[in-house]
């Protein structure tokens, strides 16, 4: 698929990429719509919003407890106020299990299960003495931006860099979901998001080769928890890095040639269906661009943490 000069005039190729953008290489035309034109449904995804609010509550609680040395109760009360501000006037879809009340209850319950005073994972201490209750990174990669010529930045945010049982350095990330299947933990074994976090932490000198994924099952009348451990051999991390570069380079070539293949596969129906479906089934999608909201994707924006937290 090709687009007009007018479409390109309103498009920008991302200067910063993350695991979500790399994943978009599976459907380049979706990448063009969502990450170059920044098109999005007018109604924000409940999974994105609730996941971001939950992650914000966890981060604030940890900052208050580990850095400001508040009690757990004081820390969560401060985090609750921040959660309310983060949620704002967003209205969850009717009957959504990730309502304001359920998501806030799940955030409180998380620290009932993983009390920071006794948690078997404690945050690493950064060189400035602060606990690594959030790991935010931006690393130049050896691919020049097709417009500016500057190195593209690989960036992201993970929930915590931690020390497991006082011995093993790990990535810690929370995932909100509805329920747990037998294969829930296996879903993350090849997740580029965590390989990317691990590679990025290594670039800052942290000898990390694994991740702890904590699932929070938010249901209408119950909250469930599950923890999964992933370990990544160095060859797998190195292979991820090479293939990440290949995927970013592929998207750059699509931009330069104005050639945007359509996936024609399961990605169209994944996670409740692609929001760009109407464009892909239109002979002239450009006439529909103005019916979408314009919502730029910034990998370092806290709201977008919800995209990786949702499942």
Structure description:
- The chain has a 5-stranded mixed sheet with strand order 3-6-7-8-9. Strands 1-5-4 form a 3-stranded mixed sheet.
- The protein is an alpha+beta fold and 311 residues long.
- The protein is 37% helix and 19% strand.
- The radius of gyration is 20 Å and the shape is globular.
- The protein is built from 10 helices and 10 strands.
- Strand 6 and strand 7 form a beta hairpin.
- It has one domain: Alpha-Beta Complex (Lambda Exonuclease, Chain A).
List keywords for this structure.
disordered C terminus; alpha+beta; 19% strand; Lambda Exonuclease, Chain A
Summed up, the domain count is 1
Number of helices: 10
Low-confidence stretches: 306-311
Q: List the strand order in the largest sheet.
A: 3-6-7-8-9
Shape: globular
Write the layout of secondary structure elements.
Blueprint: H1 5-9, E1 16-17, H2 19-23, H3 28-36, E2 39-40, H4 46-67, H5 72-87, H6 100-113, E3 121-123, E4 135-144, E5 151-158, E6 160-164, E7 168-177, H7 192-203, E8 210-218, E9 223-231, H8 234-257, H9 277-280, E10 293-294, H10 305-309
Parallel strand pairs: 1-5, 7-8
Antiparallel strand pairs: 2-10, 3-6, 4-5, 6-7, 8-9
Helix pairs in contact: 4-5, 4-6, 5-6, 7-8
Summarize the structure.
The protein is of the alpha+beta class. The protein has helices at residues 5-9, 19-23, 28-36, 46-67, 72-87, 100-113, 192-203, 234-257, 277-280, 305-309; strands at 16-17, 39-40, 121-123, 135-144, 151-158, 160-164, 168-177, 210-218, 223-231, 293-294.
């Amino acid at each position: 698929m090709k687009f007009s000069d007018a479409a390109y005039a309103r498009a920008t190729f991302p200067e910063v990429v993350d695991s979500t953008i790399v994943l978009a290489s599976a459907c380049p035309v979706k990448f063009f719509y969502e990450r170059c034109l920044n098109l999005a449904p007018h109604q924000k995804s409940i999974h994105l919003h609730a996941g971001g609010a939950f992650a914000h509550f966890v981060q604030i609680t940890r900052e208050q407890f580990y850095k400001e040395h508040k009690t757990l109760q004081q820390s969560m009360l401060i985090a609750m106020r921040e959660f309310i501000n983060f949620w704002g006037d967003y209205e969850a879809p009717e009957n959504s299990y990730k309502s304001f009340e359920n998501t806030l209850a799940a955030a409180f319950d998380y620290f009932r299960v993983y009390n920071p005073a006794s948690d078997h994972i404690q945050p690493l201490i950064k060189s400035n003495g602060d606990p690594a209750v959030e790991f935010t990174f931006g690393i130049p990669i050896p691919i020049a931006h097709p417009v500016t010529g500057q190195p593209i930045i690989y960036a992201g945010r993970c929930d915590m860099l931690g020390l497991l049982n006082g011995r093993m350095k790990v990535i810690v990330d929370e995932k909100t979901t509805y329920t747990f299947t037998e294969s829930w933990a296996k879903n993350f074994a090849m997740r580029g998001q965590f390989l990317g976090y691990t590679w990025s932490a290594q670039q800052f000198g942290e000898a990390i080769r694994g991740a702890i994924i904590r699932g929070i099952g938010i249901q209408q009348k119950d909250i469930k928890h599950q923890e999964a451990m992933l370990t990544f051999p160095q060859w797998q991390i190195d292979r991820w890095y090479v293939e990440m570069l290949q995927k970013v380079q592929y998207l750059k070539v699509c931009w330069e040639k104005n050639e945007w293949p359509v996936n024609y596969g399961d990605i169209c129906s994944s996670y409740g269906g692609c929001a760009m479906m109407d464009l892909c089934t239109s002979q002239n999608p450009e006439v529909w661009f103005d019916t979408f909201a314009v919502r730029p994707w910034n990998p370092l924006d806290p709201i977008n943490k919800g995209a990786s937290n949702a499942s």
